[in-house]
Amino acid sequence: MTAKDGEARGWRARWVGRENERRRMAYEAALQAWRRRDEELRQLYTEAEEPAQRAETPAGLPVQLDDDEIVLAVEPAAELVEVTARHTAGLPTATLTVVPLEDGSTPQRRGVSVIDAGTAVVTDRRLIIVGRDEQEEWPYAQVAGIAHHPGDPFTLLHAKRPGRIRGVRVPRAAASAFRLRLTVAYADATGAREALLDRLDDAVVDHWHDQPPAPAPATPADAPLTARLVRPALVTAVVVALAIAAVAGVVHGSLPDRPVIGMKVDGGTGVEPTGPGVPSASTALGAPGSSTTPSTTPSTTPSTTGTTSDPPPGAAPGTAAPTSATTTPATGGPTKPPSSPRATGTPAPTSPSPTPADRCGAPANPYGYNYCGGSYVYDPASDVCDYFACVNNLWNGNGYLVQCEDGLTSRTGMKGGGCAEHGGLKRPIYAA
Fold first, then answer.
1. Whether 322 contacts 329, CB under 8 Å
2. Fewer CB atoms < 10 Å away: N or C end of the chain?
3. Contact 72/112 with Cβ under 8 angstroms?
4. How far apart, in whole angstroms, are the C-alpha atoms of residue 161 and residue 431?
């Protein structure tokens, strides 16, 4: 048996086993999501075929209904939303169909704002939202189209009258049933029930053709050369090297809240510790040539090949002095490496202060705003809402930035509190 045959049966075979297992798990996850959406689409079509069912009208509902008007759905935890910019990317278009919400979708934060909250009532003639401050209604005869967002549980109603586009947002758990009853009521009122059923049937057929294909099995010929590294001995060596690097990082103060090499601290420049028993980063990781190859740049770490001294008097410019591991040409005494760049006058390399990578869940931003700690942000950047999801009246406050329980960013100093209508205060936002 040749070495090549042994490799083909060794690391290549192990890679094939791992890769086929990874492909199998990915396929099963995709197939499960596909089946779940197929069941939801078929259920929507079945419910749309049935006659509209009358809903129970809650007692004390402040809505004046006509004598023969039928209530089809009531959602007590609804919000009245308004489009602040028509050309915002991601807004839904008006189509006569209903689709389930996408799994793991990101809510639409920009371009749509909540202006009131209350109860949404769907009847066979109109949609009514009874909020705390105002009441909005859309008679179906005056609606040009209904637009359901595929990832966020809000629906926009394009009215034939001029003005900003408004709509309703409901809890995600109730979005599917609410959307279906609203769309069916609108289709019945406008004589488009058959067209709606055709659209729903097309959605079922299109989704059926999108069934994920079974993955092709991996073969030894597909194994990349990097798969050679996955051996027990090499894995152990890599783990040990990473552990040594982590310890060296702590010793050298490379944590985000501690000084690092080249970082100015109190007017000085931090340098890497030197001396016997303290390995350099390259030596600790076992870099090639770290102990036998002389360095061409000034270094504060002792080397086994000696140190570089200044050229002797009378030597030609650019001529390097001979090196020795134990003695110098002048005195013959032992040579000690300089303890810091200041001892030789050689400036140490400087680098900018690193930005903490851990923001404790805060979104990435160029200002260092985080949830970990620091100083309060009394004067936030003008484009802070490009990185954080902000409340509409953020700039009405005169205090510092805070995060509310619903995840939105607000400021203290507002009337009633910055998070009074957003579940209360969760935590402050700090500047690093």
1. yes
2. N
3. no
4. 46
